[in-house]
Amino acid sequence: MTVNLIRCGSVIIRMTTCSSNQNLSALLKSPRHASLCVRSLTGDRKSEDDYFKLELCSEENNQDNHDYKDLVHRMHLFPGIRNQVVIVQPFVKWGPKKNELTTPDLMLEEAKALIDSLPNWKCIDTLKVPVESLEKKNVFGSGQFESLQKKIVKNPNISAVFVNVNLLRGIQRKELTTAFRVPIYDRYSIVLQIFKERAKTREAKLQVAFAEIPYLRSCLVGLQKGSKGDGRGSATIVGDGESYYDSKLHLLERRELKIKKELEKMHKKRALLKYERKKREFPVVAIVGYTNSGKTTLIKSLTGDSNMQPQDGLFATLDVTVHAFKLPCNLTVLLVDTVGFISNIPLNLIAAFKATLNDAMDADMIIHLQDASHPDKENQIAAVNDTLKQLNIDSAKPIFQVENKIDKIRPENVSASCLQISAQYGTGLEEMIELIQTKLLEVTNHKLLRLMVPSGSSEYSWLHKEATVVDYSHTENPQYLILDVLITPTVFGKLRSNYPDIRILNK
Length: 507
Prior knowledge:
Blueprint lengths: L1 E3 L5 E3 L12 H4 L2 H4 L13 H5 L9 H13 L8 E10 L11 H13 L4 E11 L10 H13 L5 E4 L6 H11 L3 E2 L1 H12 L3 H18 L24 H37 L3 E6 L5 H9 L17 E6 L5 E6 L9 H5 L2 H8 L3 E7 L5 H14 L8 E6 L14 E2 L8 H15 L3 E8 L3 H9 L1 E7 L5 E8 L1 H10 L4 E2 L3
Parallel strand pairs: 3-4, 3-5, 5-6, 7-9, 7-10, 10-11, 11-12
Antiparallel strand pairs: 1-2, 8-9, 13-15, 13-16, 14-15
Helix pairs in contact: 4-10, 8-9, 9-10
């Protein structure tokens, strides 16, 4: 791991991953897989081996690795797959379970954006289906279910169905898979697919693998060896008298434990890095927000880091990265870029990234960046606030609401309730920087001292190293300089201890 907070202005964890162009067609042509996925497509953009070799191959025995691959194939979660998808949007029309913050059309729009984020996936149709609740065995009413079944089974171009709900129960997935005869995805599994495509560092890949475990565990209901995913005959016995269900459950437990140990090693390194940051007393500002709200673009605009490449897409950032930025007062601040949040996914998916998100949550202040131009803005704001609450953010921590992308809305529609900016064009950034500076100096207890020190002295060098020199001026005596210095209580104590006779002009 290479870390250089000041010179590079970022914290990046890098890993050289293996690569292969092995095609998946042989896998999907196998009789076991083809019986369920006769219409699934294959792709050669990324080998499945890249995914399965990325974290545990040195420790995991061959049988476990083979069995895990088998389970992932059954649930159609391996990377590189191609699909032509029908998106089905069930929505509760009335009652306490109705979502008042959004509409079925907006939910469909986001679902389509999720599919568009996956290479070689294409949405070929969308359907809105009113339901009484999302708890039924097959999700939909009997008439709706039969209508959907006919529509999907008759269309040979459909290779998968995305039911745009948080998480399907095992029995629901089984019923829909059996009836529609194609793989069934929910929001959890689609976001997992995106994460697998986007994860670049070893830590991000491990976190995605960790998030996959609870999902696969929920899929085990009704699944058995040789069942082709239809869930029949779940009492099949495999080695040592274990049922197929129990054997896969133990497999997931072993894998989860190994991934957890690997992540804990990385968390210890993060703890050391955090200790070093706190020792040097760098103020930290975390930028959080809904996915594609413009967080990376904002940090690039503030830091001028040409290496950052913002993308217009969901979950473009999966790794928490840190970037150095100097305020007008010359104080170095660390800006933390985080994984974007999204509505209606289980906390397990975000919890897998909790260790890296904790770096952001430990920040001195948080900026909640919002997409002012998005028609579903209120629902997105609520989703981020709910996630922050579940991450147990200190209620005393300052959180500032900032609306981004005001260049995309009409002037009369710009809200006056919070700070408005355009990260892309720089509108409002000076005001935002002033806000950050004022609040950070307050919450980090920085004091502005005016000191008289001998020019070129050890005091002069020490202050430049340990504190923030904002300005300096000459005195009538050319042997002395007046320094305006921002200093924390800890550093001030060291100053008094090392240089008890230093002259403070603004006591």
